[in-house]
Amino acid sequence: MSDKPQFETIDPATVELAQAPGAAPAARAGSGRGARLAVIAAGAVLVALMIGVFLVLPGLVERTTSEAVAPPPTAAPPAAQTPPLRQAELAQARREAQDILARLLEAQDTLEKKQVNLWAEDDFAAMNALAAQGDARYRQGAFDEALQLYKDARAKSEALLARATALVAEKNGEGGKALADMDQQRAEAAFRLVLAIDPDNTEARTGLARAGLLPQIRPLLENARGQVAEKRWGQAKGALDALLALDERHTEARHMLTQVEREIRAEEFNGFMGVGLVAMQRGDYRQAARQFEQALKVDPASEDARVSLNQARAALQAHDIAITLAAAQEQEAAEQWAQAAASYQQVLDADDSVVSARVGLLRSQARARLDDGIAAILADPLRLASGTVYTQASQLLRDAEQVSPRGARLETQITALRLALEKARQPVTVHLQSDNQTQVTLLRVGEMGAFSSRTIELRPGRYVVVGSRAGFRDVRVEFEVAADSAVSVTIACTERV
């Protein structure tokens, strides 16, 4: 600073190594009295030199580079009148005074960098005054008094440094409160003082920047407050989001946003619950369950939503089971046994305690097997030529005839199966044609020899006739014999080998 107080620099004094007062000049050589006087004079010089060693030499050796370190006094009492012990005490006090002064100068520089004149000008001046008094006493050789004055000044400097630390915390707090009060001028003043003391203080830098945003924040906050008062939560949230985008640390806005979001969630929750309850009343349990699920997403801890959802699911399950059971019964009535069995199984997958579904499943499965068996025989009645298949078909007919009540489909199947079994045992005329040179064999029947034409009776089924002739390639003919239809088959070996 341009008006920085300066401690007065003390220049070193020249120590006069003079004779003792009243000493006579040296006597001529050979005079006894003169010799004694010479010895006394020499002793006085020696004493003066010793005083110089105690008083002058320490100052020359211990002088610091600081501009305010005081050298030996210029007005010290005559060395011859100061006892050696006192001289040692003064030398010690002088050294301590120089140490304290050096630290005092460092503190003065630190305080000036912290712009102490902005926040403790009078106390800083008082500290400098004490130091100046110490300088004066030092120059007078009163080192004890100078040391005490320096100590007092040093204590004031430490108190000022401690006050600077406390003031930083105090003003940061004051600035934060001013921000909360939307008082830009007071906030900026507080944070600027902090930065004057501590230019690198992050909290003050951030606070000062936030204070500069108050003109933009103020209308957003007022808007948000108004929207909250009117319970327009969506509009309030929009204003608060915009505010926090500018100043994410704004305490009131954060608290208000928490309240607004809670109200928004409450509205959403109540909306979902309301729609769900209405859906329950009209029997739309699927829609009700969806609404209660959404309500639980908004408030996972809501017991009301959880109970309502369980009720909706139970009602939906019961409703679905009832619908599926009705469908299964309709399918049974239509003798759609496979579909009915699938429907009963669907019910049991949802709730395996439904007895009617268990019974219906067994009944439908048995009827489906009977239906499938009869349908397979009727789809290919020629299979009845096999004794095993014929036996199975006969058992199917007996099982079907025992069913009561029987539907129209089963009645039709019974009639068709009975007729198929009857026709399976009725021979059919088969005409065989050959060249009278081919040896003909009807598999599963026997050899028939060579012939030109032959008629035989065969039961319905699938047959194979084989022809052979020397010098010719064998032939094989497969044919079917169906009920109520004559069959003509030609077989002859015509390809030479």
Radius of gyration: 63 Å
Helix/strand structural class = alpha+beta
Which whole number gives the mean pLDDT?
83
Shape: elongated
- Give the terminus-to-terminus CA distance: 133 Å
In short:
The protein is an alpha+beta fold and 497 residues long. The chain contains 16 helices and 7 strands.
Structure in words:
It is a single chain. The chain has 497 residues and is an alpha+beta fold. It is built from 16 helices and seven strands. The longest helix is centred in the first third of the chain and has 38 residues. The N terminus is likely disordered.
List key phrases describing it.
three-stranded mixed β-sheet; disordered N terminus; about 500 residues; Immunoglobulin-like; 16 helices; single chain; about 65% helix
Set down the secondary structure blueprint.
Elements: H1 32-55, H2 57-62, H3 84-113, H4 121-139, H5 143-180, H6 184-197, H7 202-212, H8 214-229, H9 233-246, H10 251-281, H11 285-298, H12 303-333, H13 337-350, H14 355-379, H15 387-402, H16 408-424, E1 428-433, E2 439-442, E3 446-449, E4 453-458, E5 461-468, E6 475-481, E7 487-490
Parallel strand pairs: 1-7
Antiparallel strand pairs: 1-4, 2-3, 2-5, 5-6
